[in-house]
Structure formats: C-alpha cells, structure tokens
Design a protein that fits this description.
Elements (H helix, E strand, L loop, with lengths): L7 H4 L18 H11 L3 E5 L6 H8 L6 E4 L6 H12 L4 E21 L4 E21 L2 H12 L3 E4 L6 H16 L4 E5 L6 H5 L7 E5 L5 H14 L2 E2 L4 H8 L5 H14 L10 E2 L5 H7 L3 H12 L10 E2 L5 E2 L1 H11 L5 E3 H11 L7 H17 L7 E4 L4 E4 L2 H9 L6
Parallel strand pairs: 1-6, 1-7, 2-5, 5-6, 8-9
Antiparallel strand pairs: 3-4, 10-11, 12-14, 13-14
Length: about 425
C-alpha cells in the first residue's frame, strides 16, 4: 500500500502541534531550559508569552499528554474540579467497600428404592437448606488526599495551560495544595500570558524564590520566515528570494500561529494542496485582497462588542473622525489604537497621540479615555470567548492587545483604515 501523499494541512498547522514546520527557536534554548527544569524540579515552572506565540506547542513538544497530566485553566472553576480532573487522569477510585459473610447449612437426607424390569437399585437424595448473613461497610475517601498520595508516589508532571483563566481565589487554593508536593519533587508547569506570569507568586507569597520563569517572546522575522521555508520545501514549492516569506512574516504580528495560517492560505491561493511531484514556484497574490480577505470574522465580532461598549449605555457625545465617520468615544479609541499600527502594547500617551491623528473634534479627557479602556477590558474578559483580546493595566496605564488575530483585524479589517 502506497503511503498517503503529503497534504498541505500536514505541513502548515495553525492552532495545533506542527511537526514539519516546528521551529524550536534554538538560539533561545527554550527546550533546553524546559528539560533542565524537568531534570531538576523542586519549584514551579511558569512558561509565559503572548497568546499564539507557541507556549503550548513548546511544552507539548517535550511533554506530550501521555507523559504528563494536562489541565485547562478555562475548565477549572474550583479547587474541587482541579483535584477531580487529576483523579480522572490517574484512574483513581474514591470509594472503599468491605463486606463479610457467614453461611449456616442444614443437610436433609432421603433414601428410597427403585425397581424396574431393567434396573434395580437404591436412590439417595440430599437437600441443602442454607442461611447466609453478612454486613457491608463503605466510605468515600477525600479526593484531594488520594490524589496527593498518588502524585507523591508517581511524581507524574502536571501542566496547567492558560493558568491565567483560573480565578485568583482558586489559584491560591491550588498553589497551597501542591506546594509541599513541589517540595517533594513534583513537577508543575503553568502556562500564562506575560503580564500574568507571576500569578503563582502574587497569590502565594511563600512561593517567592520557588518559581522558575521561561519567557516565550514574540518571534523575529527570521524565525517566522523559517516556518515558510521549511513548509514550502516539504511541499516542493519555490519562493524566489524568500520574498513571499518576508511579506507574510511582516504581517504576522510576530505570531507563528498567524504565520502558519498565512502560509496555508497562500498555498491554496496558488492552487496547491498536496506535495508537488515537480518543483513549482509560488506567486504573490494581490496583497490587499489577500490580507483583507483573511481578517477573521471572530475578531470582527470582538471589535463590534468593544465598539458598542457597556450594555447599559447612555447617550454619548458624538465624535467626528477625520475620515468623516461619526462615532462615539469607544469607536474613536479603537480607531486611535488601529492608527498606531496597531502596536500590541500601548501606553496612554500613545493612545492619546492616536486620538489626535484620527479625530477632527476635540480630544476626550484622560479620565474618559482610561474609563473606556477599563470597560473594554471588562467586555473582553466577560463577553468575548477565549483569550481576552485586550487587557488594560491601570497601574501601568498600558493597554495590551493580547490576541494577534485582533491586532491583524484592526490593521486589515476596518474599511476606513489606511
């Protein structure tokens, strides 16, 4: 049986674990750091980085699900769920039942004669009368206790992906419940976005000095281009002078997730979905049409929710953009953010500068702008599924665009945006 020909989806994997186009980013020694932690232990490892920059892919490349217990922070709403989920992974039974039986038997014997023309003999029958008595005792073991005993014996690593999705109160209970196991050698890895990387220390001060950090930063243009080069080569496709790779990487917002997606779509736009028997050159599409056509509809929904603002909205002052569009302060702030590129980390002053560029009417006051940014963060957290697309840190007066797909939409999905 001939092997199945290599398909496009086998090469460029957006949102999964790539193999052919996996880039370990060897110059950063991320895999070595992760392996050193597994060899040494005795602390919690926090793997942090912006969303869709390869944090989960990195950890899974070293610790696939069969070699660790993988938990999703988004599915943990209480510490009881945390212990229950681990118990399921370990196949633990929390109930214990004991029983004891006693049996009394009485034998009755009957004896008779058989007489037939062809058979003559004796028949003896036995009748048993029995009575059984017994008792059963059962109890349910505490799940946390049983899981802790099992983990202490096996020391199978635990990975909590999207740890920032777990509420702070539950994080406290989890960290306090595992810190003595970590002291005994249990490996625990939490995966989070950068500004939540130190949640473990924030919720439990005793963990200071017992948390190791691995920072998975944004990708360089060369690292992103490497994805395209590996994939095109595997499919026997050519990219003259790496011009296409460089163009795609420049629009990927330093995210390998977006780069994988763009490479996949570029191959399809050229009509290639499997490996080619002979070398074929890829050709550039109409770039404006290509990128605008890939502005995610999911990101449009997020944009619309942010532009609408809180549900309990009152009449808002009209804001006139230089494009002639009439909007309110929420639309103006989003237009100002988009005007910056958008940058994925924006100070208040940068947003205010963006407002000057997009507004033809008077600028809103600082308090008005920061209130809008706070409300957008609440909407992003509570009303938009998945990773919050924006997150405003009031202490630092900084807005983070957490999702590169949303940043890409701000660049390419807004019809009036140059």
């Amino acid at each position: 049986m001939e092997p199945r020909p290599l398909k496009l989806g086998d090469v460029f994997v957006a949102g999964g674990l790539p193999t052919i186009t996996y880039n370990p980013r060897a110059s950063l020694a991320l895999e070595e750091e992760l392996q050193d932690y597994l060899d040494e232990g005795y602390r919690i490892l926090s793997v942090s980085g912006p969303t869709k920059t390869g944090k989960t892919v990195l950890v899974r490349s070293i610790l696939p699900p069969g070699e660790a217990i993988w938990l999703s922070g988004g599915a943990i709403s209480s510490v009881a769920e945390f212990w229950d989920t681990i118990a399921e992974h370990l196949g633990l039974f929390t109930g214990i039942e004991r029983s004891s039986d006693s049996k009394d038997e009485m034998w009755n014997t009957r004896q008779g004669q058989l007489s037939f023309a062809f058979l003559k003999g004796a028949l003896e029958g036995k009748e048993i009368v029995a009575a059984t008595q017994g008792e059963k005792m059962s109890r349910v073991r505490n799940i946390a206790t049983q899981v802790r005993e099992s983990l202490r014996g096996s020391l199978v690593p635990i990975v909590i992906d999207d740890f920032h999705y777990v509420s702070a109160s539950v994080q406290v209970e989890i960290v306090r419940g595992i810190k003595d196991l970590v002291f005994d050698g249990l490996r625990v890895i939490v995966v989070a976005v950068p500004h939540r990387a130190y949640d473990v220390v924030r919720v439990e001060r005793e963990m200071t000095g017992r948390v190791q950090q691995i920072k998975v930063g944004f990708w360089s243009p060369e690292e992103l281009s490497g994805i395209a080069q590996k994939g095109f080569s595997a499919l026997n496709l050519g990219d003259k002078g790496d011009e296409l790779s460089r163009r795609l990487s420049s629009e990927s917002f330093e995210s390998p997730h977006l780069m994988q997606h763009f490479c996949l779509e570029l191959c399809k736009a050229n009509g290639y979905r499997t490996i080619q028997s002979e070398r074929q050159d890829l050709h550039a599409p109409n770039w404006d049409e290509f990128f605008r056509g890939r502005a995610s509809m999911a990101s449009k929904s997020a944009f619309d929710l942010l532009a609408r603002g809180p549900r309990q909205r009152t009449d808002r002052k009209e804001r006139i953009l230089k494009s002639g569009e009439v909007t309110d302060i929420y639309g103006a702030v989003l237009a100002a953010i988009a005007r910056t590129g958008p940058r994925t980390s924006l100070s208040y002053e940068e947003i205010r500068s963006g407002l000057r560029e997009v507004l033809s009417s008077e600028l809103p006051q600082r308090q008005q702008v920061t209130r809008v940014l706070e409300e957008m963060s609440k909407i992003a957290e509570n009303e938009i599924e998945g990773e919050p697309v924006v997150d405003f840190d009031d202490e630092l007066a900084t807005l983070y665009i957490s999702d590169p797909y949303f940043a890409f939409y701000l660049r390419w999905g807004l019809p009036d945006q140059p």
